[in-house]
Amino acid sequence: MQTPPRPAESLTLDYFRTLVADDAHFILLEAAAAVAQDEDPQVDAMSVVSQIDEWGQRLFRRLAADAAAQQRLRLLNHYFFKELGFAGNLNDYYASCNSHLHHVLESRRGIPITLALVYMEIARCIGLKVQGISFPGHFLVKCSLPQGEVVIDPINGRSLSRDELDERLQPYRQQRGLVGDYEVPLGLFLQAAEPRDILARLLRNLKEIHRAGEDWHRMKQVLDRLVMVLPEDWHERRDRALVCAELEQWATAAEDLQTYLEQCPGAEDAPALRERLQELQRMARLH
């Protein structure tokens, strides 16, 4: 008896799981490209990676072997923003396609984090050390040069001074009460982000887009990936439970919510969610 074919959604999640399974072999760029398979399972993440590497190799062949790091950075910025024409999609900033790398390559428009992913890979191809910074409100990159680190806005390639970074950080500090005696040094916000955290931020951008649009099916797809990327972030498990409840997937919702309550028994929302769990378990039995 032949085994029935598995749904495309299940296969794409299996593929994604292999890319994010452990930190030692975390394949950030390919995993980021694979996120778009929720919209179109036919998206070829490897072809996205190959296209970016091709651009990187093309730029590398232009460089003199002894080109200094600062010269490489200048050439990278000219190549990325002028020749390839990448820029922020300011006219449609919150469109989900800005988080899909294959679309960003086609349109040459994106948001800071997707532009940064492409920029960082091309930089790697030409021997530059460029890392992502999960800066509040706007993803940034930094390039290590002999003279020190340069912080760059991936929307336009502009280097940012400490005063500019401090100014950008003020709304976040005010909102979180990180002022006066509680002020946190700027340097702590400029640490290099781990690949897993970069991918989680990309997914959370999509999660908020779908939450705002009350698109529960797409939000559930994103949360399935977030739970794989951050298996011990119990709040993502809780959010998936609540989305599953919206989709009337009662058993899955109950299982996720029970896990959250077991791991976070003292959470502020735990009393209300215990009542919700009983309701979900009752609905699961009925269905």
By DSSP (H or I, 4+ residues per run), the number of helices equals: 12
Rg (C-alpha, Å): 21 Å
Amino- and carboxy-terminal Cα gap: 30 Å
Beta-strand content estimate = 5-15%
The averaged pLDDT comes out at 93
Principal-axis shape = globular
Class by helix and strand content?
Answer: mainly alpha
Major sheet description: 3 strands, antiparallel
Unreliable runs, pLDDT <50, ≥5 residues?
A: 1-5
What's the count of strands? 5
User: What strand line-up does the widest sheet have?
Assistant: 3-4-5
Helix coverage percent: 55-70%
The number of domains: 1
Spell the H/E element sequence: HHHHEHEHEEEHHHHHH
Explain the overall architecture.
The protein is mainly α and about 290 residues long. The chain has one domain (about 10-230). It has twelve helices and five strands. It has helices at about 10-20, 30-35, 45-60, 70-85, 100-105, 110-125, 160-175, 195-210, 215-230, 235-245, 250-265, 270-285; strands at about 85-90, 110, 130-135, 140-145, 150. The strands form two sheets. It has a three-stranded antiparallel β-sheet, with helices on one face. A two-stranded parallel ribbon has the order 1-2. It is globular and about 70 Å long. About 35% of the residues are buried.
